[in-house]
Design a protein that fits this description.
- There is one protein chain.
- The chain is α+β, with helices and mostly antiparallel strands and 86 residues long.
- It has a single domain, classed as YaeB-like fold (2-Layer Sandwich).
- The chain is 35% helix and 33% strand.
- Strand 3 and strand 4 form a beta hairpin.
- It starts with a strand and ends with a helix.
- The model has no long low-confidence stretch (mean pLDDT 95).
């Protein structure tokens, strides 16, 4: 799986705590091998994020992405659950 990052994702990623950056990298590595690994809790989103999907990074940290095709995706946002969905 080829992964691209929107500049919004990169900006928010750079503001994360060191431990959250490390966990995000681990999850993205796992995602590149198997996007639907149960650990990631990958699921589709609704509402303003229709056509996007979400993976869980930590208990409260989420990453939002969209498949571009079957071999490529772009991560567009990373933030806490409450900041993303409320």
């Amino acid at each position: 799986m080829k992964i691209f990052f929107h500049k919004n994702f990169e900006k928010k990623f750079n503001k994360l705590r060191v431990s959250d950056k490390k966990r995000t990298r681990e999850c993205l590595c796992l995602f590149s091998k198997d996007p639907f690994d149960p650990i990631l809790e990958n699921h589709p989103l609704k509402g303003r994020y229709t056509d996007y999907r979400n993976i869980n990074i930590t208990g409260n940290l989420r990453a939002i992405y969209k498949f571009l095709n079957e071999n490529e995706c772009i991560f567009v946002d990373v933030d806490t659950h409450s900041n993303l969905y409320y």
